[in-house]
Specification:
The chain is of the alpha+beta class and 310 residues long. The protein contains 12 helices and 7 strands.
């Protein structure tokens, strides 16, 4: 891409926004980059002389690309029982607090997991309207629906999200599900207190300590791929999750605190190699969800510069 060319320069000014939209739509950093690249190719071939709002035009284009990708994915996955953790964004715990808040409010792993269960049209309507404030008059044509129909899809998505375990009891100002770090949840410092207590209890084999910080209905998802910590599992219930945690207690001493999409987590590093990434969702001073990525192929694809080195 020639960055001195005016269309290229205009596109670069929108790249971060477009990637943010695509990531929330897809839950995949690689696919998000592919969608953004496709949007650039379409811009480079289009006559945009009459386009008054390039940001809105590009948002529409990347949304249509993401919708096609979601529909294709739904077809491929409809018979799949694999546990899949969305691509995480891993950052240092001392990163800018404002950026941490944006990540936690908009793209928490727990919310991405639930979004992954929505039909493509509902996901698009919800993400565009509730996260990016795109009007339904713009969303409707993307879905080949009327604005009223697009509004109904977003409303249906909110109802589904409200009934998901990670979001029960918490709602946003417009009646939608509260983000992972919002009302009903501990602030970041209190979340760290709970997650640190879990790690300490796991290391020490403290069963009562583990039960004290786990919600009775806690859910653990482990995406292990073909790695040594397989198979991938989905476990529900405090005692069941506690038993699983005890299996890997010896790895606790290799755990390093990180932020996973703005929320507390740990990166397990041994001999310079990333073995697992854990993200925790804390509500009312209890861990309600734990998502573990232990797929060695996917871990190698993450941007962990500055996090793996001693």
């Amino acid at each position: 891409m020639d960055r001195t060319d005016p269309p290229a320069a205009d596109f670069e000014a929108q790249r971060a926004h477009l990637r943010s939209v695509a990531y929330r739509m897809l839950g995949s950093l690689t696919e998000a980059d592919d969608a953004v690249q496709e949007a650039w190719l379409r811009l480079s071939r289009a006559d945009t002389g009459d386009v008054r709002d390039l940001r809105a035009w590009l948002t529409t284009v990347v949304s249509r690309v993401c919708l096609d990708m979601l529909r294709s994915r739904a077809t491929r996955r409809e018979d799949s029982l694999d546990v899949h953790m969305p691509d995480p964004i891993v950052t240092r715990v001392d990163d800018d607090p404002a950026e941490q808040a944006v990540l936690a409010d908009s793209v928490g792993i727990a919310l991405l997991v639930v979004l992954d269960t929505l039909p493509p049209a509902e996901r698009l309507a919800f993400v565009l309207h509730d996260v990016f404030a795109v009007p339904f008059e713009q969303i409707g044509p993307i879905l080949d629906r009327t604005p009223a129909a697009a509004k109904q899809l977003a409303s249906r998505a909110r109802r589904r999200l409200r009934t998901a375990p990670a979001h029960q009891g918490a709602t946003s100002a417009d009646g939608g599900p509260a983000p992972a770090s919002s009302a009903g949840n501990a602030d970041l410092a209190r979340q760290w207190t709970v997650v640190d207590a879990f790690l300490a209890a796991s290391r020490e084999g403290d069963f009562e300590g583990l039960l004290a910080v786990l919600d009775p209905d806690v859910v653990l998802r482990a995406d292990a791929g073909a790695g040594p910590f397989g198979p991938s599992v989905l476990i529900r219930g405090a005692r069941e999750v506690m038993a699983q945690a005890q299996r890997f207690a010896s790895l606790g001493r290799f755990a390093r605190p990180v932020l996973v999409n703005g929320a507390p987590g740990f990166l397990v590093v041994r001999d310079g190699e990333s073995l697992a990434l854990l993200a925790a969702t804390v509500q009312n001073d209890k861990i309600t969800e734990m998502d573990i990525l232990a797929d060695p192929v996917r871990l190698r694809q993450l941007d962990l510069v500055g996090l793996v080195e001693p």
